[in-house]
């Protein structure tokens, strides 16, 4: 046939050959054209390839099978010539992942449980208990979950809010029945809920979030801070803060305030009234501390202890005694027992390290380390525990008043540079004090669906955001116990620097009479049941409660 060219018998192969030549002639930086599209010139308009749908056309030998990028080639021995099998294979691989997505997204209980498991083995009681231990750490967020709705916590009326504030200021004791049939219609419950959300704060800067302060530079950066460059304004703020701090301490001493927190940009201090946490005197715990802070406290005459360090030394000595007895029983060398016992005196090491210089007669020609270097070497262990939970410092009795004056006059208490420069520490209290501002925790209810036994059930949740102190946590659980009919669970998000406050610190104090303690602290503004919980000796150690669950009016928890 005149004008007929046999090269057009296989149009798809011809187009692929043209694209292949085009790729070879283009520079390496140029991106190849998409598969199945005709090559475009610099100014050529977009044009559809008329042969892109001819899938059954014969292909040239050695031409690769066109497929999507990232698609896995068919395994050896499989019918690779069948395009249907190639299209079906990735679909079969993706199906299990897509099936698992709803489960992973909606199984809220399992996800939060795995997310907040501690590194150590969690402490879970063998049987449910009527009360959970006191948790002295500050929580930044609570997430309560239940099969019963939280509609009673939504849209409080103006009168209910006002009544809740009045009950808080008057320290009104609210006792609810064990189970409330219609929680949404219970005005007493809604007022008590508003009462449990109240806390007191100083200073109050509406456009800044003043808790937590440790690691808050990134959150505060870029916000207006007119005091950062104004020394006169900084002095006014610190003077006002000192008055509020002193007011809180006097309330604590008079047992009108159970406890309060001082949150700086480097450490947190918890002041507790006499009778709380198993102590018969006022206590103050500081965490984390540094060698410089501890040295400054010693210079001011503040007597303090490092309970966790002393506990470690005691445990080490006991282990050394056990090892020594074992070695003597096994007729081993007693000299080796010193390795497992107390650490050798650094001064002896220094003397022995320089004794060989004296033997050679060159002790005057070799430069020895100065006294500062020797001192740093002696305090190596003390420096290593800085900024760690083990650096917890305990101040007791009248030394807490000396600590008060030290903190007021301490220049390093306030940042000298950075986003927090010139901003006084945050004071958090469960009761009103001079210069304090009433604040409320933010609460909202959320509804979600969770997969339970191959079916989806509706889960109701209540989220509480803010600095949740120990009394607020206990008050909220008492309300939920009645409103949710004794069945709910909670995920607790802890401000980690405060978790170490749960360490039992006072082994030497005599057993306290609970009736006398509760009677003395009745005017502190807390519910009697909450007060009874906070008088118990801490049992959580350096950890805090991460997960709390109530079933049939019994508590279980994980720390």
UniProtKB/TrEMBL annotation:
GO cellular component, one term: nucleus
Keyword tRNA processing recorded: no
Classification via InterPro entries: Donson
Compositional bias ranges of the Low complexity kind: 37-50
Subcellular location: Nucleus
Principal place of residence: nucleus
GO BP annotations, alphabetical order: nuclear DNA replication
Keywords: Developmental protein, Nucleus
Keyword Nucleus in record: yes
Region of interest: Disordered: 1-82, 315-352
Biased composition (Acidic residues): 336-351
Similarity field: Belongs to the DONSON family.
Name by which UniProt lists this protein: DONS protein
Source organism per UniProt: Caloenas nicobarica
């Amino acid at each position: 046939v005149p004008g007929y060219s046999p090269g057009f018998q296989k149009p798809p192969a011809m187009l692929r050959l043209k694209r292949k030549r085009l790729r070879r002639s283009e520079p390496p930086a140029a991106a190849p054209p998409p598969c199945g599209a005709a090559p475009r010139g610099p100014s050529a308009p977009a044009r559809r390839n008329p042969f892109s749908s001819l899938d059954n056309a014969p292909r040239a030998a050695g031409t690769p099978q066109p497929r999507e990028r990232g698609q896995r080639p068919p395994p050896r021995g499989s019918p690779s010539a069948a395009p249907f099998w190639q299209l079906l294979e990735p679909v079969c691989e993706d199906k299990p992942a897509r099936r698992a997505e709803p489960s992973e997204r909606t199984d809220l209980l399992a996800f939060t449980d795995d997310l907040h498991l501690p590194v150590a083995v969690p402490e879970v009681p063998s049987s449910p208990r009527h009360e959970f231990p006191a948790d002295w750490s500050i929580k930044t967020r609570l997430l309560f979950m239940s099969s019963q709705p939280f509609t009673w916590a939504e849209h409080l009326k103006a009168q209910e809010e006002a009544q809740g504030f009045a009950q808080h200021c008057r320290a009104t004791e609210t006792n609810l029945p064990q189970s409330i049939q219609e929680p949404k219609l219970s005005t007493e419950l809604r007022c008590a809920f508003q009462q449990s959300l109240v806390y007191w704060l100083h200073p109050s800067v509406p456009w800044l979030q003043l808790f937590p302060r440790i690691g808050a530079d990134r959150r505060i950066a870029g916000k207006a801070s007119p005091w950062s460059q104004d020394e006169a304004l900084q002095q006014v703020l610190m003077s006002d803060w000192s008055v509020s701090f002193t007011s809180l301490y006097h309330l604590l001493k008079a047992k009108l305030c159970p406890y309060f927190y001082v949150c700086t940009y480097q450490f947190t201090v918890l002041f507790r009234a006499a009778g709380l946490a198993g102590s018969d005197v006022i206590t103050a715990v500081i965490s984390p501390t540094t060698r410089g802070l501890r040295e400054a406290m010693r210079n001011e005459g503040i007597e303090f202890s490092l309970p966790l360090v002393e506990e470690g030394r005691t445990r080490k000595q006991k282990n050394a005694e056990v090892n020594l007895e074992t070695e003597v029983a096994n007729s081993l060398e007693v000299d080796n027992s010193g390795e497992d016992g107390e650490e050798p005196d650094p001064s002896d090491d220094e003397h022995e390290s320089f004794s060989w210089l004296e033997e050679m007669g060159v002790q005057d020609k070799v430069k020895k380390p100065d006294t500062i270097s020797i001192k740093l070497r002696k305090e190596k262990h003390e420096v290593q525990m800085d900024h760690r939970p083990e650096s917890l410092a305990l101040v007791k009795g009248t030394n807490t008043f000396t600590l008060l004056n030290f903190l007021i006059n301490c220049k390093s208490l306030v940042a000298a540079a950075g986003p927090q420069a010139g901003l006084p520490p945050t004071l958090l209290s469960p009761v009103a004090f001079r210069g304090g501002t009433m604040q409320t925790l933010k609460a909202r209810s959320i509804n979600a669906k969770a997969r339970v036994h191959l079916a989806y059930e509706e889960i109701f949740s209540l989220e509480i955001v803010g600095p949740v102190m120990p009394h607020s946590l206990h008050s909220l659980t008492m309300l939920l116990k009645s409103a949710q009919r004794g069945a709910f669970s909670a995920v607790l998000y802890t401000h980690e620097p405060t978790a170490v406050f749960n360490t039992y610190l006072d082994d030497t104090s005599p057993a306290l009479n609970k009736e006398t303690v509760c009677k003395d602290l009745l005017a502190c503004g807390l519910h009697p049941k909450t007060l009874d919980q906070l008088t118990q000796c801490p049992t959580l150690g350096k950890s805090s409660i991460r997960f709390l669950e109530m079933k049939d009016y019994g508590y279980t928890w994980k720390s």
